[in-house]
Amino acid sequence: MDRSLASWNPLDWPITTGVVPYALLVAGSAALLLLVLVPAPRWWPLRLPAAVLAAAAGGVLTALTVNSWWQPFAGGLPDEVTAWIALALLGLALAVARFVPTVPPRTAGKVLVPVAALLVGVMAASQVNRFYDEYGTLRAMLAPATEALPTGRDPHTVAAPPGGALAQVWHPPPGLPARGTLARTPIPGAKSGFDARDAYVWLPPAYRASPRPLLPVLVLMAGQPGSPSDWVSSGQLETTMNDFAAAHGGLAPIVLMVDQTGSTWGNSLCMDSRIARAQTYLAEDVPDWTRRHLQTAQGRRSWAIGGLSLGGTCALQLAVNAPRVYGTFLDISGQREPTLGSHQQTVQRAFGGDEAAFDAVDPLHVMARERFPDTAATFVVGDEDGEYGPQQRTVHAAAVAAGMKARSMTVPGGHDWNTFRAGLADNVTWLAQQTGLIT
């Protein structure tokens, strides 16, 4: 899209930086003051205190539900996010308090009160989005634009020379497209039975050349909650990969953004367990599908796996439990072990309380008893991430002790998309080197 045109389209206005989030903060704060300060019958002695108590109770209940009962993700809700949720509930409670029990507001209030409550809610949502830095624009919230997946196989191919890199023998033809293509496609769980959501496949410009270069493959996974499209909408994957391809004659890894959880809030643990056979899906079904539908480089050296948060933990798990498939992995803000909230809950739900079954596939236990001298690893964490930073250091030390060619790095940010985006962008060159694309 032309940048001059995009700047006039509200879908492309930045909503985590610049004017928009601050305008929403001012408007929402003014709306909240209006809801609090404008008097109404029995407002100060009864309705206002009741609304405040209801909102506070709602915030506490939300935190308890998410962190202690539901536990949809291991990290729980940060205090700042919980506070913004409570503030949104306060706006709603104040609006309700003005309509009940017996004295309805005046005609203007029937419009202004709901609008004010809506502004408070939008402000809170904006601040939560800024906290995670997930959606940079409204367009990022929409489904990514995709094209049809190419199905033809080129009889003429270019492969990396033995012991060398593909870039050493690749000569980009005239007229090579400037950008890669994005497709959406199902990858069935033929062997695993895993019910995965559609994957997204990014193909670099060189894939459309003839002869076709046999490119390495990068399998990427999002966190929880999340979906395969997160790497496109929030991770700016297309920009990162297109920039790399532009600097390397159209060459870049093929990227498969796959579903390892089965749903937005699901957690398969990336294991073969009572919950699902997610490891079989990622170690067998995904590579099998790729071989049938795409022309790629073959062998573990040419296959890398990576992810963020839960996806980073999953990348580590696949690297140590399926080392014949994946020779390289990128763990961005992952955990020290796969978890459903607590170790006891995890072992009980996944393995019926069988600790030995869990230890057989838990990365720290696997690395303690096996060595991986031919595996390359990078661990990335935000320099403000007080929860996952120590866990990453533990896992990195275990990887080094297991003989991996492992490195660890920090980037500015917390457990958010600032870190996740940088974790990929700062390591594309390293991934391309490890997978035989460039020297």
CATH superfamily of the largest domain: Alpha/Beta hydrolase fold, catalytic domain
Gross morphology is globular
Number of strands: 10
What order do the strands of the largest sheet run in, or round the barrel if closed? 2-3-6-5-7-8-9-10
Give a structural overview.
Keywords: Hydrolase, Membrane, Transmembrane, Transmembrane helix. It holds the Pfam family Esterase. It comes from Kitasatospora arboriphila. One of its GO terms (molecular function) is hydrolase activity. By secondary structure, the chain is of the alpha/beta class. It has two domains: about 5-130, no CATH class; about 155-435, Rossmann fold. The protein has helices spanning about 5, 20-35, 45-70, 80-95, 105-130, 230-235, 235-245, 280-295, 310-320, 345-350, 355-360, 365-370, 390-400, 415-425, 430-435; strands at about 155-160, 180-185, 200-205, 210-215, 215-220, 255, 305-310, 330, 375-380, 405-410. The strands form two sheets. The protein has an eight-stranded mixed sheet. Strands 1-4 form a two-stranded parallel ribbon. Strand 7, helix 9 and strand 8 form a beta-alpha-beta unit. Helix 3 (about 45-70) packs antiparallel against helix 4, helix 4 (about 80-95) packs antiparallel against helix 5 and helix 12 packs parallel to helix 13. The longest helix is centred in the N-terminal third of the chain and has 28 residues, at about 45-70. The model is unreliable at about 1-5 (pLDDT under 50).
